[in-house]
Amino acid sequence: MKKLILLFSLILAPASVYTEDFKAKLNLSPSNNSHKRFKREWIWNQMHIMEEINSPLPHHVGKITSSSRNKNAMYVLEGEYANSIFKVREDTGDVYAFERLDREKKSEYELTALFIDRTTNKSLEPPSRFIIKVYDVNDNVPVFVQKVFNGSVPEMSPVGTSVTKVTAVDADDPTLAGHATVIYQVIQGERYFTVDDSGVISTATADLDRENQSTYEIVVKAKDSPGLHGGDSSTATVIITLSDINDNFPTFEQQSFHFKVFENVRVGSEVGKLKVQDFDEPQNRNTKYNFVRGDYRDTFEIIPNAFTNDGIIKPKKPLDYEKIKEYKFDIEATDPTVNMRFFKPGGPKSIATITIEVLDVDEPPIFSQPSYVYEVKENYFTKNPLGKVLAVDPDAAKRKIRYTLRRSSPSGDYVKVSNSGDIFISKQLDREASAWHNLTVAAQEIMADNRLSDIESHTQVYIQVLDQNDNAPEFAYPYEPKVCENAAPGKVIIRISATDKDEMLPGVNFKYSLTTEDSNFTLVDNHDNTANVTVKYGQFNRELVKIHYLPVIISDNGTPELSSTNTLSISVCKCDEKGEFTFCEEASKQVGVSIQALVAIFICILTILVITLLIILRKRHKKELTVLRKNVAEIHEQLVTYDEEGGGEMDTTSYDVSVLNSVRKNGMNLEPGPCLYAQVQKPTRNGNSGTGEMAIMIEVKKDEADNDGDLLPYDTLHIYGYEGAESIAESLSSLESGSSDSDIDYDFLNDWGPRFKMLAELYGLEPNEDFVY
């Protein structure tokens, strides 16, 4: 460790050289027994150079030397700045700087020295590092850390009060005396401020008044000791602001103020504004306003505005033009927080004269009382007034007043107010319905043209309805008592209490009694407006009576004394051994239906009736359409097909032809019926069958139905407009059903077999025998 310390000191020492003494300390001596051969050593002079040398380049720095005497060796430098700033002569080891050095940019350079063989390019000595130090010269001007500094100090501060501090930095070596020393000097504003060698700026006078000048701008110079350049300097600007203190009293901007205000101005509203001037800043203004002359401090108050410092005049009570038309008084403005140490005497007095002129307005009537209270007994009616409200015109005109009832609670015509202000009741009042009647009465002035003024005033009238004993007491709750069928005598079933709709004043006493003693129950008065219902004999029989109805008479002690009969429905229950109810027959209760439920039921019934009516109307409409369709002139063209065959010749009971008698014999005048029949005549014998033509017509209709998308398909065609050629049976259409003059013999139908037997019987009759089917 000692060897390393000495080696480090040797390298860093600027003037150190290798000597035998050093070699001995480092065990480098050739006489050391631990080394058998001679060891070569590096030898060089002190390595340093002055900055900013004015002589021509290159500048000699020093010399590196090896103890080796090899003529074929050469010196080489390595490092960041080797062979650029610093170069070495290969043969002599002299080191030169090829640039002017600036210590403020770099104060030390670390290089490595090599001693190598020219031929083999191998090192003959181990590489050795060394440092070249740059010596400082006083070549830098002190520079302020900022161009502008700011400071603040209270106004009127004593001499020497610190304001702020400025700082300048000299880049020269501070370890050299005088190189980095900075000297400060105020070169502008030195009358008001000074600066010491540390850069602290202080006040130079005690009369710095913010109200005269609030900001100072001074210039401070920084210079160092005389050096290479003769002591250059730099400057900086310092802006100093004087902070305010409360050292000024407020003064009025004018000697007198005159204001006009209407007499109906609201209490607490602004009447006028007093302008004052205080040169201090707002935070140091604390103006107070005092009455000096004029005893109106009970009428007005002056409140300072926190932002403008103005005095706001406000009335403390209503103004009355008829009483006082003008107010005049003196006001003084002061500031109790002024610092008297800095007070400047000789200023103007802050006193001003205030004149307030009151203007007349048409005021509403004023009631004699803010409210009125009257009493009346309930169930009492009188034509005499209960009381009277009174209002007067406060103006000089003294107009008459008309009174109007604006609102009443509860609503209704229970109470009336006359035009003259008399209060009447129009009907008996019920305290149980409303114990108080509250009225709002308006008063209006009657103008010269008998019209009412647009402005009015109001007062409240309270009518208390005094109670009369007009309600009998009754059960306080809907009791549902129960008793065990094996209850013992004296068993308390229930405790009952009563209530009264009348006023329950202290001293009200209720009495309880039974209408008859012939029951299995008794009443015991508890003397606290309650009573106990107890078992008298015991042993109830549920098989005989499941519910006992016990009438109880409750009476009060009012005047007059009133009573009512209330019935207790006592259910007899089965009980277990512990006396707990196991099964009871509940007393029948009247089931009530709420109004909402009744409305819902009514709506449902009404909806059902409407739906039923719509269904009936729809059916009737369909029936009318059916009748209209059947009355069409072409109804005779309708073909009715029956897909049912008769029973043959022997079937004479399958069809009831009695209905045919309902058809009259005079053509188409048919009576209504379930089916439509036509009168058929016997066909004549002349003519042939038109079967072929009918078949052709049907095929044509089928083709038309198949080819025309607007027509019905042929298999649902029911109307035919072609009857075919005349046949032996002639036409079967109803168009000629009224004719009966044919003499054709239809006996040949009997030869067609049993299927045509019925037809043969019909057409085999005489012509005057008409049938309709």
TrEMBL record:
This is Cadherin-5. It comes from the Eukaryota. The keyword Signal applies. GO terms for cellular component: adherens junction; bicellular tight junction; catenin complex; cytoplasm. Residues 61-144, 145-252, 253-367, 368-475, 475-583 form the Cadherin domain. One of its GO terms (molecular function) is cadherin binding. Pfam families: CADH_Y-type_LIR, Cadherin. PANTHER family: CADHERIN-23, CADHERIN-5. It is a single-pass type I membrane protein. One of its GO terms (biological process) is cell migration. Keywords: Calcium, Cell adhesion, Cell junction, Cell membrane, Cleavage on pair of basic residues, Cytoplasm, Glycoprotein, Membrane, Metal-binding, Repeat, Signal, Transmembrane, Transmembrane helix. Residues 1-19 form the signal peptide.
